[in-house]
Amino acid sequence: MTTSVVLAVTVGALFACGIYLMLSRNLIRVLLGFLLAGHAVNLLLLSNSDGAAPIVGEPSNGEPMADPVPQALILTAIVISLAVTTFLLAMAYRNYKVTEEPEIGDDTEDVELEDASPGAGDE
Amino acid sequence: MNGSALDFLLPLAIVLPMAGAATTLVVSRRPRVQRFISVGTLAVQLAVEILMLARVVQNGTIVVNVGGWTAPFGITLVADELAAFMLVVSTTVALAVLVYAISQGMADESETPETPVSIFHPTFLILATGVSNAFVAGDLFNLFVSFEILLTASFVLITLGGTKERLRAGAPYIVVSLLSSLIFLSAIALTYAATGTINLADLSVKLPAVDPDIVATLQAMLLVAFGVKAAVFPMYAWLPDSYPSAPAPVTAVFAGLLTKVGIYAIIRVQNLLFPTGSFGTLLMIAALLTMVIGILGAVAQSGIKRMLSFTLVSHIGYMLFGVALGSTAGTAAAIYYVAHHILVQTALFLGVGLIERVAGSTVLARLGGLASASPLLAALFFLPAMNLAGMPPFSGFLGKVGLFEAGVQDGRVLSLILVIGGTLTSLLTLYAIVRVWGRTFWRPAPEVTALEEPDDALQTESGRSLATRRAAQREALRQAKRREAGEKAARLPLGMVGATTAMVAVGLLLTVAAGPIYQVAQDAAEALSDRNQYVQAVFSSGEPLPGLDPGSPAAANGQAGGGR
């Protein structure tokens, strides 16, 4: 099988953008990043499958038929990322409702622990 | 191994909790029915798994081809000794935690009406489904799917109630988990491209023919993906940040099960796919750093939950050490240690939940004098704590001795260093845990907090008589506090105390029945080291599909590497 350069470059670019976005504190950006990176992985899976569609009979020109397994895997992966996307959207919405900010806040427990025990560990 | 009458047990271990989850969703308006169904489901699942373990120990691996498609083509479920053993331990923990959560929820229902308890049961059962499925998955993609099932359930559980703190603490956990899933899925894509299969047994046959550099890449990607889930050294930072903010039973079940699923996947993949162990040294270094850095983090903590989360990270290092040794003795010790740690860590987190209930806090500075308020609680925390630290004769000690023996047998300098590191870690664990126990239970209750204290300026003005009066006042307040704690301890829901006691007891059972249980671990490790056994079991598990010849469509991927 020959994986095309275009496909490989696309996968790389999607991954780079996706991971960059996932580093953000803004949940919507994280979600978009996850979607991009997820598409990158799906393309990576798809690059395994190359050839005529295995629908009815043998292909006339004798070219090899595409392997359906990666496509089945992609379908499953898409369903899973749909579920995760829904969850992340709900979480972003809830976070916005509670904090009125689109971003994830500082760790209040850290701050509280530091305030509550000045000198913990040296008693 | 062909179609025995008891083979139907294997899919039951996954189908039961899944069906339970569906049913509890249907009856979400009737909490009592819901509780009954979820406890009943897990109890039946546990019974099924104990039966299955007995059968696997007696007759060898159970293999079920879902939908009748034989090994490399369909979805295969495999229960060898390791999987069956892990199933029993994990469901025991899940059941105990569920009982604890129910009794806590019942006691809290009036206090926090907005908490969606009706969501808890289906999600918890889905989590159990994911964990069970991960243990019996016979191919990489099925393993990925089960990881996703348990992760999605864990996302819901860790942000339960949707409060600000939980959302904040859950976010890093969720993002890191998603990233590791993407890495895992990429690894699957590359594995399929390199070999044309993702069935574990098939891979174990075909991987040796693949270019070693490619194999090393695949191995590295899989180890990173599983390492994140198991919280191994460079990838552990999400854990102590997110776990402490979840409700006590959720933290307990996460600490017990989720990281261990990662360790299980590492054990499985290392033994089955990459037995030559080209990453042995790297894994050992990771194990050492996980142990030492984790425990140093634990020593520095001022809250019990965070301290326990760091010991959780630290002790993952022991299991990784056993895996990295690559010997049968090392793997056996690692398996025993996994079982020990699941039980002990869960018991400790359940105990912390009780402490929080009695004292209203888990920050060390605000705790004290609980031993007089609740001697039972002090004992319930003390036993697993000593067990975790590896005091003889507890199971933690036996597991560590097994690991150290395997390390010394190995004889490499690095493994000797690891043995020393392990000893040091276990001493530091003892220090950390004794410090926490002493402060929480043994020392007198802390001074009344600043808020309740009268103005300090007053004291200096009015001289000594006021000072003595204030001291008496403070003493009275302290006694009132202690009495209040005692009353709270007396009012602890029976189910919570019972579940914690049960966990502690099962943890002790691991010590009492150490002989047979260690034997199971040993057998599981031997079965793992003999890969042919697994491969044979999977491939002889059904008749080959009729009409499948090398020219058929399924073999079209042949050019990519090993044809089918």
TrEMBL record, chain A:
Keyword rRNA processing included in the entry's annotation: no
Topological category with respect to the lipid bilayer: Multi-pass membrane protein
Protein localization: Cell membrane
The protein's name: Na(+)/H(+) antiporter subunit C
Annotated segments matching region Disordered: 103-123
Entries under Pfam families matching the protein: Oxidored_q2 (PF00420)
Originating organism: Nakamurella flava
InterPro entries linked: CPA3_antiporter_subunitC, NUOK/Mnh_C1-like
Keywords attached to this entry: Cell membrane, Membrane, Transmembrane, Transmembrane helix
Membrane-crossing segments per the record: 6-23, 30-49, 69-93
Keyword Ubl conjugation: no
